[in-house]
Write a structure and sequence with these properties.
Order of helices and strands: HH
Protein name: CsbD family protein
Low-confidence stretches: none
Radius of gyration: 15 Å
Number of helices: 2
Pfam families: CsbD
Number of strands: 0
Largest sheet: none
Structural class: mainly alpha
Mean pLDDT: 95
Family: Belongs to the UPF0337 (CsbD) family.
Shape: rod-shaped
Distance between the termini: 19 Å
Length: 62
């Protein structure tokens, strides 16, 4: 499993928590930061998934 998958998933979780905390406390800045962090984590996780898929395909060919 690619490191980007793991780190991205962790960012997604952290961002979700931050977003929820911002909503609960009414702090729009914290909520927005959480949304950005969650989106960044999603992209990073997807990059890791793509790397894993590419490795699998290359291993099939060998």
């Amino acid at each position: 499993m690619d490191n980007d998958r793991i780190k991205g998933a962790a960012k997604e979780i952290k961002g979700s928590i931050k977003e929820a905390a911002g909503k609960v406390t009414g702090r729009r800045e914290t909520e927005a930061e959480g949304k950005v962090e969650k989106a960044t984590g999603t992209v990073q996780r997807k990059v890791g998934e793509a790397k894993d898929k590419l490795r699998e395909e290359l291993d099939k060919d060998n």
